[in-house]
Fold these 2 entries.
Entry 1:
Amino acid sequence: MIRLFLLAWLAGQSPSPDAMQHIQAGLAARKQHQVETEIVEFRKATELDPALADAFVNLGAAYMEKGDYGAAITPLKRALEISSDLVVAHQFLGYALLEQGYAAEAIPHLQRVGALDALGVAQIETGQLNEAVATFSAALANRPNDPDLQYYLGHASGLLSKKSIDTLLATHPDSARAHQALAENYFVLRQMPQAEKEYLEALRLRPDLPSLHLELGQVYANSAQWPKAETEFRAEAKLRPGSAEAAYRLGAALLQQGKSHDALVELKRANELKPEMPETLYSLGKAASLAGDNATAEQSWLKVVELEKDTSIAAQSHFGLAGLYRKQGKTSQAQHEMQEFQKLQSTIGPPRSE
Amino acid sequence: MVRRFTRRNLLSLAGMAAAAPIFEVKPLRGIDFILQNSPTPKKFLIETMPGGVALFDYNNDGLLDIFLVNGGRITEALHVPENFDRANPRYWNRLYRQNRDGSFTDVTQAAGLANVGNGNYGMGVAVGDYDNDGYPDLFVTSYGKNVLYHNNGDGTFTDVTAKAGVAGGGWSVSAGFFDYNNDGLLDLFVTRYMEWDADHNKICGGDWHTYCPPSVFPATTCLLYRNRGDGTFEDVSARAGFTAKKGRALGVAFADYDGDGFTDIFVSNDGMQQYLFHNNGDGTFNECALESGAALTSDGKGLSGMGTAFQDYDNDGRPDVIVTVLPRELYGLYHNDGAGAFTYQSLETGLGALTSGSSGWGVGLEDFDNDGWKDLFVAQSHVLDNVQQIDASLRYKELPLLALNHSGHFERADSGATTPIAARGAAFGDINNDGFMDVVLTTLGGPPMLLLNRGSGGHWLSIMLRGTRSNRDGYGARVSVNGQIRFATSAGSYVSANDKRLHFGLGTAEKATVEILWPSGTKQSLNGVRADQFLEIREPEHP
């Protein structure tokens, strides 16, 4: 890429004849992949014509081809002293500086040429995390499937999140939000007793803070303490009666305890608040089946297999339907659903245990 | 005023005291056994799987004796052919004879049960009178070769494995005697876990170094031996249909779930679907768990099946299945709906809420409080000895689970055990013949634990079957007492063998109606049977 860019750029220059001779020799050496010869020829050109910006750009480019980014910086800077509008010099210098760890110095050069990927990296390295997130988001808009960009956006977002939390912990260590942040961290690390302690402290400070009960409930659910999970989810559902997730989690906790009728009420409510969610519908089917409401169970699971084709939750719904039909004596329908379940199992693998 | 205490009053008071533990942890006087599983940093998978316990009356003196299976010595340098140092007394299996005062005497050496062979790491035990001579025989499973000991009736046993042809091989775990063809001779079924040896061991868990999950090793098949009646057995595994179904089998239990007169087999598999082998009555079996609804959870997920029980928990006359598993799953309860169909009912029965954080091994459905409903007891402990480092919400050592059955709904009760243990095997029986069921557990690296039932209420009846046309133990008989059903067997649980006597809690009933359907097809009824007795019932020789 560097070579093509240079050739195009040199076509518009007017070097002295002696310097031009060495530049052409350098370009010829480039074609032969003789990078050391390139460097000798372009350096000679700079000596013969110290005001010839293209000679310095070529020399810098040759060093970059060699991988010697440190050596490339001086001639590229000289080129920009001679002619500050040289876009290619800005680009090369930006990359070279970034490569050598001079991220802050690289940023204006990369901004000037719109090299978003390298600019985002430089912004991460200089702690400009908000800017980095914006830069990578813009880059991803143009190249949405680029895995490097996807990684860097996630990386920058994570760092930004951490920075924000660090600030929170430093400035307001005794706040409910600080305890919530610590609790979330412990939850990720599966250190449930510590997570529980922090959530309880957060709740003591701000009992009405949205999502605290929900998250604490998930701590309990994770360690199979279902009655406690039910209490927390119920508190969240009371606090936020419009939250489909709170209703769903409460329904699931009730279901785990075999309270199928209560679970059915909550899962129906979750489904009304946010319809056509496969997880809600699947659990709704399960609760209905346990509660003896076969019509709702069948309707819910059929909806899941309509929404989800080749997923494990579709497989589970086929399995549920098979059991339902078997109990109803609908043998051929039960067999059909079991076949669908087995077919999906063979393609996507068996549903995993929790 | 003097208050008169009627029997009802007393039972009511007993109910008021229900908060008191059902059991009392009692020392097993005279038993110095330590289960040597020999854990190593190499995490050889066999280390975490033993060992069995059998409650049986080997000398017919009316007292239950205890046989304990030992593991063996393992070092980090273990290689094929493995040597587990079983000649060393530290690693012997042990037989303890119960004395009249409730203490035990080690009779291992005198009984001829001392050295099981250095290449065999012990796993489990099955008990049955395979030659119908009136003395219970022992079958000991191992990683390596299994051993059949014939009870000579004089306090000694003889290793008859070679003659009988039941050594098997590979990694055998649970086993049980049953009469699959109703010919009056006990046959033998053996579960095998996986294809594994010391040279092909693996360590999992990254830096944590844990035992690997079963899926890391190839599956294998179970074994069925037909009793020829001349002291030898025929391996009919292929003909009967078992070699076609590979699995990772740990537990086995028997019952006739569809009432066709032939005993069926439930096999608990680890990390996959469970197996229900329907006895076709012609010497073959058909694995039908998936279509019967007894293979997976209600979510279509496999189970880490370890122990299993196959008895009727809800008194509807049909045997149901319970499977013990790892945490994050729920102990599986498959309700027998009739017509060959089962429904997963772990949630409805309350079992799910009691077990989602626990790991279960040995399991029994027995009426511990004699109220007429079979309760649940499970030996618990995680399979990984370092699980707490990996997941702080889990524990390696756990208390056993006692869940009392309230008309089909299980609720946790105080077992009386207060120290968490790494339990594996569990055998159930009335050790002190007081009419209340007791439990003996095995613990990895530790002594066995006796949970002696305090006996806090309810009438009872204990029945010992004496088959004549059927096998002498009456295994496979369907026994109904006041409408409750038990299937006669000493198998079930995990690597263990239970008291063969059939225990029934009668609640307030002082009389019982007993109905027996023998494996021979003979039906027998007894009316007005007095409660609170041990009753031997002999099968009519002429139907």
Entry 2:
Amino acid sequence: MARTTATNFTGPLQFPYATAGTDIFKKEDVQILAQATDQHDHSPGKGLVLSAGSIPAGSITSAMIADGTIVAGDIANGAITSAKILDGTIATADLADNAVTNQKLGTDTARLNLLTNGGFEIWQRGNGPFTVNGVFCADRWQVGIAASDTFSVNRNTSVVSSVGSTASAGCTFTLSGGAGTSSVNQVLRLSDNPQLKGCTVTFSLAVNTGTANAVRLAVASDGAATVYSAFHSGSGSFSTLSVTATVSSSATYVMLQALFAASCTAYLDNAMLVVGSVPADYAPLHPADDLARCSRYFEYLTFGVGTEYVTVAQASSATAAYGPLRFRTQKAVTPTVSASSATHFQCYSAALASILCTAISASATTPYDVGLSFSVASGLVAGNATLVQAISALQSIVAEANP
Amino acid sequence: MSVRPISFNADGSIEAVYDELGHSGTIPAAEIKWTINIDGSDNHNFIVLNCPDGCGASSAWPVGGGADAPNAQRMFVEKTKRDGCACGQCAPGDADALCESHVRLNVNRMDGPGRWQFA
């Protein structure tokens, strides 16, 4: 065997091998080997390059890695978890365009409420109690009574779900054969709101009751099975229940229900219906918008007694006059128009003398206006105009259109 | 909040309520009347109901259904079967299906397809 030299040490540290007994041995060989051992640090020319297997697992610490040297390729796909990201550091630019889905939104992301009077703030029909099946209580919210169940719904101003809420629907319910199908509900006719067809929607409602398993939500329609939420726990405080459903493309209506399955007192407030699978915290409308939505279905027209004119009518004879009354808000369908007693109104003669009405009726109604006919005993002049005025605080003209 | 029918009797009368004042009672068939046009003719698109309590309140119901489509449409069908239609298309005693079809046509004309809710 001939003398050879080390391959992992180079330069002055490249010591020779003497691998056979006949090889010459020099003291310098030991000196170089001693220097090589002394300077051995695995750098080029000073020993074998350090392999991964030479490093014990879990022994490389952060201090051994130069700052700013870890590149994306060093990190396995899908390995970075939320805990590794400092809260509040993800910026908008880190998100791909159009990548955040509805499912990723928090409930406090304000979204458009598809309900009318979701906050139970507007009660144009009065404060109640409303106890009859099919009657509307708060605007657009209808009482549905099954079997011999009883309901009493009123406007409650003391038990509300949020600081700004001024009213909730206070419900006293007694179960008697209804088997959990009695409800306070809002129906969306898809002839009125056809764009909901095929949408996934989430209905949420703040419920307060001290009775467990008494109140839950449901989304019902004629195109799909009814979907239910969990029951309220009966905690005696407000809890927001929610339920998600997909509206059938063939549905003709969607009914959002608070269903009552046990006798209880419950309070309903701050309902939301949003497109998407995540419920949205209640977001109040501007009061003008809130009332305008309600007025699409119910408009309660009253007039200042002696200070405000109902309309200007044209007399067709000494006893009859006809005049238009334009609604403040276009109705969803042609409305039923109701007028209080004719004795609440008067016409003016040509000499501006008061003439009490003896009959008032509506005809030629459209979603925009109504033609009113006024009858009097005598005193009008055919072809003349006559001012019509309210003379009683009890007067009202109501247009109601429920699609 | 309207003078509204809640049930229908065999003699053609209806049970009605006026929610606003808590009034209720029976309205005879003869008092279920078409509204009168400005020229004095009957209008088959509207029926007027006076509060049975006699308080003077009245409601003009459109054939489309207004505040309560199922009951209002039924009221028009029952009246048309009983009295014929104001327009003359249906006569008293005409087949039920003919009367219902005529009312349904008027419903569609007024509020569009999809409004019919009387089953």
